[in-house]
Amino acid sequence: MSKRQRDSREYARRMRMIQERAAARHSRLRTAYLAIGAVLLVFAVMIVVRLGSGTGGGGGQAPSALPTGAAAAEITAGVTSVPAATLDQVGKGSAQVLPTVVTGQQTLTEGGKPLLLYVGAEYCPFCAAQRWPVVVALSRFGTFSNLALTTSAADDVFPNTPTLSFHGSTYTSQYIVFQGVETTTNVRKNGQYTPLDQLTAAQAQIVQKFNAPPYVPKDSAGSIPFMDFANRAVLAGSSYSPELLENHSHAQIVAAIKDPSTQLGGAIDGNANALTALICKLTGAQPADVCSSAAVKAFQGEFANAGQ
Questions:
Q1: InterPro entries, per this entry (predicted)?
Q2: Does residue 305 form part of some domain?
Q3: Calpha distance 264→255 (Å, rounded)
Q4: Which helix (H) or strand (E) holds 10?
């Protein structure tokens, strides 16, 4: 096993530990809600008042106001138009956890194009981190419309992580089809995050099959974010830590993405380049200018079997 593979597995192990702690925390919270349900009923009026105050049942720190109008448009324009020269300069960056190639499966398509599926939730800080490189990469193959700005939940690990949301967005491309599913919001109601998008039967079947062993490690099964790349590669969990996004605004994250010298830019752009290289395998190296770039060549050989 190479040093890169050992480092990648160790990094993935650490990320799974963080996610497992978050999941355990959610479980403890659910248990607590059930245990004190009768008491809360007595104080129903007080609870209604607290919920009305905007805490959302989270008990975490309040997020800053989200950018709107021209400021929001500038952020989405910035993340969807990262200069090719910047991505080429970053190359591999600090990308460590890459999608795992799946063998023995027929390429999943829709309308003759490879189908990519993302499943996450707005409360999830790991999803919040992963959306940035996903948007950067996919924007090299097509166009997003109606991307929204949001944050992860205030009561989770890495609270209020700035991010985007695929809920309500559309993506058009002559090369690939992308489906982004956000299953819940970042706001609690009666102790649970409010439902948002519902998986279709076909999407649920993909998740059930590929977000489980042997396609992902047993201790990562069921993790979000989850991505399926046309049934030829999968990614369960985020490819870098949300910790890197702490104390950054949306605008500061976009500025870092466009600056190859920053640690955050190296993480987001490096992982975006990895996703780009994988997608190029699925599209038959189209578009040519993207798939022949230095950014993609940095990952030459990493996804050798993904397009077969």
A1: DUF929
A2: no
A3: 10
A4: helix 3-35
Establish if 82 belongs to a structural domain.
yes
Q: Would you say 291 and 283 are in contact if contact means Cβ atoms under 8 Å apart?
A: yes
Q: Are 219 and 225 in contact (CB under 8 A)?
A: no
**How many independent structural domains does the chain possess?**
1
Between β-strands 143-145 and 184-189, what pairing exists: parallel, antiparallel or unpaired?
A: unpaired
Q: Please enumerate in sequence order all residues whose Cβ is within 8 A of that of 143, keeping only pairs 6 or more positions apart, or say none.
A: 80, 171, 172, 173
φ and ψ at residue 84, rounded to 5 degrees: -60, -35
Q: Classify strands 113-120 and 177-182 as parallel, antiparallel or unpaired.
A: parallel
Residue-wise pLDDT for 43-101, tens only, equals 332 322 233 333 333 334 555 689 999 999 999 999 999 999 999 999 999 998 999 99
Show the domain range for 148.
3-297
Are 143 and 173 a contacting pair, CB within 8 Å? Answer: yes
